Amino acid sequence: MTGPTGPAALRSDGRGRAALLLAALLAAILPALLLTATGAHATGRSAADPKPVVTLSGKQAGKGGEITVKGSGWRANTLLMMLVCGQSSPARGVIGGTNSCANADGLAVTTDAKGAFAKKLPVAEPPVPCPCVVHVATVTGDQAVADAVFVVAGHPVAALPKETGDGKLAVLATTRLEGDSGILTWFGAPASRRLVLTVGNLGSAAVKDPVFEVGTAHGVYAPQWEERQWRGTIEPGRKARIELPVELTAGAHGDYQVSLKYGTKVLAQQPWGVGRPWGVTLFWILLCLVVPAAVFRIGMAVVDKVRPRSSHAAARSRRGSDRLADVTARLPGLRRAPAPSEGPAPAKGASTTTGTLPWFTPDSAPSEHRPTTRGHS
């Protein structure tokens, strides 16, 4: 059996050749396209997230001096903290956490839109011996750290502690928050708890005085990390009960998330619901009611003291006094009975003259010697 011949065969053969040519062209171009895309992606990632760098205006200065710290490669508009730390090196970081730094003399700085900054930092002696570094770290958001070697003139120098190996900590039991809020928390005092967990050392070396980071996050905001050092040694294959303090700011309330991080690994997270400080609300309500009432009373007393007495008020007062005097005068007074006369008594046999009644005359008055008409015989 033979295939199609003529124009149909020519058209079929032309289509097959075109498909083979297109497939060969794609096979030749595809590796180059993939390599270009990979290189562009890597270049874009490094440009978008460069490694933070810190440079100093001088490598050595004494206490009380000043150096200029410059940085680049940080996130834009990010808050940073600058510290002079001892027992540190760029390779090993700050051994002992910020407890090895001069925290009281640290400064905060905010990067610009390009992720750069420049600020003068006063030189202070850290609480531990050198070697020292200028330690710069982010305060909020994803953690980023950069160290620059620095020498504090006149400060003691000691060798860094030897590395004992790789100690790996893991959480063995459920974390929990212990503690209760007092009555002061109801009036806005900072709420505090203890983060309790059990960790085990899964590595081959002991972990001595580990430094944890405790972060508290509210809502969608990034955690605010604070270093907490636990005193003790966890031998390989052993476990230990860890208690770390957690405290919020004054007046904080709502739903919080407490996180625990060791190194770059988040070991545990625990929710924490904090009630609203209703005592503060009650205080402001009472203040809004009492203060206006007191001001009103004081104002009315002042107005009553300083206002002048008007003529109408004086006339009204006089009319009231006159009316009171008139009513008093009209009241009946008490009359005393006349006292008996103490003159000489009349002589015996003397006649006393009495007033005659108007309807009798001396001649017509009845007499005992003149009998009356009635009964006269």
Explain what the structure shows.
With 377 residues, the protein is an alpha+beta fold. The protein has three helices and 20 strands. A five-stranded mixed beta sheet has the order 2-10-9-4-7, with no helix packed on it. Strands 11, 12, 13 and 18 form a four-stranded antiparallel beta sheet that branches. Strands 16-15-19-20 form a four-stranded antiparallel beta sheet, with no helix packed on it. The longest helix has 42 residues, at 7-48. It is elongated, with a radius of gyration of 55 Å. It starts with 6 loop residues before the first helix and ends in a 47-residue tail after the last helix.
Question: What descriptive keywords fit this protein?
Answer:
disordered N terminus, 3 helices, 30% strand, 377 residues, four-stranded antiparallel sheet, alpha+beta
Structure at a glance:
By secondary structure, this protein is of the alpha+beta class. It has helices at residues 7-48, 278-306, 311-330; strands at residues 53-56, 60-62, 66-72, 79-85, 88-89, 93-94, 107-110, 117-122, 132-138, 145-153, 169-171, 176-178, 192-201, 207-208, 211-218, 224-229, 233-234, 239-247, 254-262, 265-274. It has a 5-stranded mixed sheet, with no helix packed on it.
